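Many introductory courses stop at the sequence. We go one step further.
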Amino acid sequence: MKTTTKLRQMLKSGQMVTAPFVLNAMHAKIAQSVGFDAVYMTGCGTAAERGFPDVGLLTMTEMVANAKYIANAIDIPVVCDADTGYGNPLNVQRTVREYEMAGVAGIHIEDQVFPKKCGFFEGKQVIPQEEAVQKIRAALDARTDPDFVIISRCDAYAVTGWEDTVQRCKAYIDAGADLVFVDGIKSPEDIKNYATDMKDLPRMYNGDLMSTQDVAALGYKMMICGSTIWLVYKQVHDSFQELKNTGKVNPDRYGTRWDVAGLMGLDEIYELERRYGVTEVPVA
């Protein structure tokens, strides 16, 4: 079954889809190995891995390249950050086609001015509602797989207020978006207001202010969980600091090369080598 169809079925099942943030294919394989049914390719994390803050400095090509590696590594749906669609409605159409060809199950496109900023950063600006609606229409017209999920992200809360955010989200669903995603939610009260004021809209939440169980109880269709990438930063930072200070990292901090190699499919490589008569080349 196509991962797009898998995601569609999950969204219709009545059970909330929980997708942890992943920066790369390795993180995606870990998420699948512990039992997650979907993952989310973070734009913030993709930018960070390339040495940039999340302020719209990465190109669509760079984002799609990461998405392709992730989608090829796992069998579960990948939902991706597609920023603003990287331009006007015509650019959005190419963006949709490129992500579709990369093998992901869905994307979200936001209503920020390009270049965008992380939803939690200051200095965001949003485009007019009708312009955002046209981008949604263009995205829907561009997809070749009807199961490919188009999520409309709204960043208006911090810019034009909650009333405008609600109005925009209703317009985005009316235009045909499969889900709405209000970013920049900062409190449990915000999460509840989001659920109450948009109770009739299919909604996605990004954050870690409530447990997945509590968010699901509020009727959300999807939750993406970003705390996983901050954990990566903290663990790597602290292990480097320990190595610098003591000359050694406590083995309890890490797994083994064999843990990682096994997850990456080393045993399957050995089996293929046996099948095809591949042998090691002696060292001269």
